[in-house]
Design a protein that fits this description.
- The chain has 112 residues and is an alpha/beta fold.
- The protein has one domain: Hypothetical Protein Aq_1857, Chain: A, CATH 2.60.300.12.
- 15% of the residues lie in helices and 45% in strands.
- The strands form 3 sheets. It has a 4-stranded mixed beta sheet with strand order 3-2-5-4. A 3-stranded mixed beta sheet has the order 1-6-7.
- β8 and β9 form a beta hairpin.
- The protein is globular and about 35 Å long.
Amino acid sequence: MTDTQIMTLTDRAATRVRTLLSQNDGVTLGLRIGITNTGCNGLSYTMDYASDQKPDDAVVSADDITLLIDHDAVQFVAVTEMDWLEKGLESRFTFENPNEKGRCGCGSSFHV
């Protein structure tokens, strides 16, 4: 399934993803985005290099970048915007998810 509306990337996030993909030594199709149960609020985003596409993955194509969204994560990340934040010594991907109903104090987990 291909759906560019599941997740979008800011220009900063796209630039960072391109950099990461170009530095990976393995055969990489794109980045796999998922959700795991963790933290004090229940859910957390996961991200890893994807070397293959699973039959039930949702595929988000943004220019030359491919995001593979785990089937079980689609309901939690619909219409989420992925960004790249650099602030002082901190740098990380952020997710602006309108489906979130709350986030823990440290920001590592959320619930919908």
